[in-house]
Amino acid sequence: MHEVAPLNPWVALAYLIAGVCFIVALRGLSSPATSRRGNRFGMAGMLIAVVTTLVTHEIASLPEIIGAIAVGGIVGFVIARKIAMTDMPQLVAGFHSLVGLAAVLVGVAAFLNPSAFGIIFPAGSPNAGLILPVSRIELGLGVAIGAITFSGSVIAFLKLNGNMGGAPILLPGRHVINLGTLAAILGLIAFYTAQVDAPSWVFWVVLALSFLIGFLLIIPIGGADMPVVVSMLNSYSGWAAAAMGFTLGNTAMIITGALVGSSGAILSYIMCKAMNRSFISVIAGGFGGDSGGAGAGAAKTDRPWKRGSAEDAAFLMSQAEQVIIVPGYGMAVAQAQHVLREMADKLKEHGVRVKYAIHPVAGRMPGHMNVLLAEAQVPYDEVFELEDINSEFSQTDVAFIIGANDVVNPAAKSDKSSPIYGMPVFDVNKAKTVLFIKRSMGGVGYAGVDNDVFYQDNTMMLLADAKKMVEEIVKSLD
Predict the structure, then answer these.
(1) Are 281 and 431 in contact (CB under 8 A)?
(2) For residues 369 and 327, what is the distance between their CA atoms, to the nearest angstrom?
(3) DSSP per-residue letters across 45-110
(4) So where does this one cross the membrane (predicted)?
């Protein structure tokens, strides 16, 4: 594609409006109450950007492009209709991989046919036909970030989808390997930029090493830290798009990519602070504990524990002044959010004050639990983040844990060998009574760590499918 009128003020204005729509969209997505409006602004901004690009560029085959857009739109619509909320994290990781792959394909196309992209020295110059140095930087960084995003997102997808284990895969000398690979990538990009007649193999080696390091960065990351990985890959996908925006000379791609990249990086930093993780260790890979995760997490089912029934839980909660509900991925798997809200409504009819405690990394992606509760129309003023509600557990009658484990595990504070050590967790053990819904005592959380809360004197284990157990509790509250 060629820009027909790069200085056309109407084109610049259209891209500016699209950029403002994207900014307003991000602002709207910061709260469940405004997320729908944010999505609409994002859709409007993308429509403006796409239409402007099609109108102001020379299109080799407009029917083919419109056909591709139609096919992609249909596929997206079908996925959006059929995808379960439990599969949303791996879907996001899969979409990130497609963004990275798109950046790689654009970069490869520009490398193979630079004249079509207008990134070559003009005729008559000593280096006529060769790629401009600034374009070499854009190409090198674009394909590198895109390849890292693609391979890293594929590994994240496999981990989130259960095709790979959640425990970290720790390679010997992984940090040296990662730093060496990254240094080689940057060195080759610098060489490719400085030498206008650099051999083509340099480009392909950069691409291959970038695919490799994306793989190496993600496999050492444990399951408890996967929400940060999703956020980090989101940032990478944005920077890849921005780099390709420079290659294509498309202002909208640069703006959009920069917004996604920067917002993803900020979110990753916020989540790292929430988990007491080093942001640098996220970038380097291999965080989440060096102990091997699952090795230390075999369920200790021989320890004494107390089992309760739905009737017991209903009686205890109906007599309470305050109940704090802590949802986790198990609630998502059982799709229990709607019946959970029904249970909360029943408790409020009994005069019980009900609150929801949401951990930043509960589930498999940032905001996973918030989305599920919003889907069930849980009032926003009943949902609280960790730092806002954690101090209330010591004055709470019942902590109701549904499908969570790692985010309520005191080992994060007491066991330095634990893969989740240092991660802030809910102090549910301080509540007068803990009701813990779990499928069986034989399993452990996604990080592969047993939980001492199961065996406390004030804990009653409710072993069943989360949705079925809550349904039985609701019946007992009638």
Answers:
(1) no
(2) 7
(3) HHHHHHHHHHHHB--S-HHHHHHHHHHHHHHHHHHHHH--GGGHHHHHHHHHHHHHHHHHHHHHHH
(4) 12-29, 41-59, 65-84, 91-112, 139-160, 176-195, 201-221, 252-272
Q: Is there a catalytic annotation at residue 406? A: yes
Distance CA 264, CA 49 (A): 21
pLDDT at 436 over 90: yes
Are the beta carbons of 418 and 424 closer than 8 angstroms? no
pLDDT score recorded for residue 417: 77
- The C-alpha R_g of the chain, in whole angstroms, comes to 25
Contact predicate 234/140, CB 8 Å: no
| pLDDT at site 293 | 39
d(CA 195, CA 208): 20
Span 95-135, pLDDT tens digits: 889 989 999 999 999 999 988 888 888 888 888 888 889 88
* Per-residue confidence (pLDDT) for residue 5, from 0 to 100: 41
Decide: 439 and 372 in contact? Cβ < 8 Å. no
Q: How far apart are CA 281 and CA 285, in angstroms?
A: 6
Instruction: Give the DSSP letter of residue 319.
Output: T
Residue 444's pLDDT is 63
Rounded CA separation 64/81 (Å): 26
- Structure tokens of 34? 């405004």
Which residues are within 8 A (CB) of 463 and not within 5 positions of it... i.e. 6 or more apart? Answer: 307, 438, 439, 440, 441
- CA neighbor of 29 nearest in space, from 401, 328, 374: 374
Collapsed DSSP state (helix, strand, coil) of residue 438: strand
- 24 membership: H or E segment, kind and range: helix 9-28
> Do the bridges between strand 433-438 and strand 459-463 make them parallel or antiparallel, or are there none, so unpaired?
parallel
- ∠160-166-170 over CA atoms, to 5°? 125
Burial of 336 (0-12, 13-18, 19+ CB in 10 A): buried
Give one DSSP letter per residue of 96-119, joined into a string: HHHHHHHHHHHHHHHHH-GGGGT-
Complete DSSP assignment for 371-389: HHHHHTT--GGGEEEHHHH
Complete DSSP assignment for 332-382: HHHT-HHHHHHHHHHHHHTT-EEEEEE-TTSSSSTTHHHHHHHHTT--GGG
Q: Mean pLDDT for the chain?
A: 84
